Amino acid sequence: MKWLSRLAGVMWATLLLACESGNPTATRPEPIGQSGEIIIVCDPVLWNGATGKAIRSIYGASQPGMPQPEPWFRIYQFRPDQISSLSRRYRNLLFVATADRNKTASDLERDLWGDAQRPQDRGGKQEFIFAEKKNYWANEQHIMYVVGRNDADLAKALLTRRTPLLHRLNESERSRGIARLKRIPALKEAVNGLRDSMGIDMHIPNTYAIRTLNSDFVWMARDLGDKSFNILIWSQSWEEAGQPGSKPAIVSVDSILSWKDRITQINVGGPLEGSYYTTEYMEPPVSHSVIPGNPLSGTEIRGLWKIENDFMGGPFYHLTRSDTIGRRWISMEGFVYYPEESKRELLRELECLIHSGRSRQSTNPGS
Fold first, then answer.
1. In degrees rounded to 5, what are phi and psi of residue 77?
2. Which among 168, 172, 273, 361 would be 20 to 30 A from 266, CA to CA?
3. What one-character-per-residue DSSP string does 63-96 give?
């Protein structure tokens, strides 16, 4: 395929025309931009064509489990000649090109990747090339690079890779969020109590307060006027879940939701007598594996919550994972109350907190 021979500098060539060349300094600046933003760098013809439509359908799709439509990411498109020494410091950058719209080659790929691992070499005979770089022009930065034969082929390739592409960017935001939360001093009473009562290590910022903490159930909350952040944690032995075997099985989403509703009805009361926290099933929750294609990596659920016998509600994020040594399922759920306002980034904070938690008993880093 002759077009592959032209990929020695297909994408990074346009970047070189607008940016300083050479390797970055050892001390990188902080990134610019906000959590939940992605900058797409591509030719306007591609952006207005099938490729741009595919990108918007991936990163701009509505995040499931939200009471009002909110996209996974806010998308901004830059032309290659708009990338400057400042704008190249954005936290999330996606460079997009096709072989039929690039003619100039450069040495920047060699600077970025080295001769042995240049993206076009790893692409081989594939008609789609993906590569990424972390922390290159700024700290905590995620650069992605995609190249296709032409607009139609690239759009098709992107859409078939929708799930892993979105997963990679969400993972980057999650890693940044965990690092940011760990820079906040810990609420030692909660950290020690969670470790001693449930055998779970988690960094709980001192902006949170304990509402319930015992060996069966933990509830921590952060109240900011009209906003409320909440974390719930509980566990269930494999035997309780009807799985007495020595190896973890895949727990069904129905079982997770049924168990969670029983737990929260008992432990999370609402503001009125007889009211309690539960799942809103009018809009069915959406579930998937923590790692796409690997059901044993854990189950994530996004959906809506409500207060039974009251009028409160909002979005939740739930994670259930197996603790193979403790022979139990550990469930963590975060929910936000912030009426009529954007909730995506608030929920992301809780998601980061949840993913920072680890069972002290398990040798599996994903547990």
1. -110, 130
2. 361
3. PTT-SS--BSSEEEEE-GGG--TTGGGBSEEEEE
Residue-level pLDDT at 26: 57
Residue 292 near residue 167 (C-beta atoms within 8 A): yes
Please give the span between the terminal C-alpha atoms of the chain, in angstroms, as a whole number.
Answer: 45
Question: Is a pLDDT exceeding 90 seen at residue 130?
Answer: no
Both structure tokens of 4: 């592959």
pLDDT in tens, 19-53: 444 445 458 899 999 999 999 998 899 999 999 99
The model carries a pTM of 0.83
* Domain spans in the chain, listed from the N-terminal domain onward: 2-181, 185-359
- What CATH code is assigned to 185-359? 3.40.1000
Dist. CA 105–CA 237, nearest whole Å: 59
CB-count burial class (<10 Å; 0-12, 13-18, 19+) for 146 = buried
Report how far residue 87's alpha carbon sits from residue 103's, in angstroms, rounded to the nearest whole number. 24
Evaluate whether 145 touches 11 at the Cβ level (below 8 Å). Answer: yes
What pLDDT score does 5 carry? 42
Contact predicate 307/324, CB 8 Å:
no
Give the separation between CA 243 and CA 341, rounded to whole angstroms.
42
Span 163-185, pLDDT tens digits: 999 999 999 999 999 999 999 99
